[in-house]
Model the fold of this input.
Amino acid sequence: MEPADLLTQHGIDLARLEPAPHPPARAQTFARVQSAPPRFCVVCGDQAATARIVVSPGAGPRWTDWCWDHGMAIRPRCTLPATLEGIIADLRAAAREAGLPRSGRPGVLFFDRGGRRRPPKRGTTMTAPAPVPPVTEPDASARYVPR
Ligand SMILES: [Zn+2]
Done:
């Protein structure tokens, strides 16, 4: 669930909450969560375990503090790619973001501890990975039967 949806569900007016920096900075969020005295959940009033910045079209960015349960309710959902191509695209994007050197062809590059590219050690053999079998729907009649 999106934080704004939960706030709307509970009739919480973002304009009444503390203005927040924008774009959100992780360090500022950590500092807010660890500050004393503790803050309280905007929904239920329990002690806050996390904080998020919610941007309201009318009120701008606002701090929202969340207890454990409400924090879990607004936790960003993991979106894993469903295909091998999607996984590879994600890995390539992560490599670009990390500034890793690009290779024109798929393969394995070797680097020393200083980050310099080096040839593979003698005796290193590379084999192509086994082909991935197609994903099939499980047979409804096949059930796990514990012994
Ligand atoms: Zn709460």
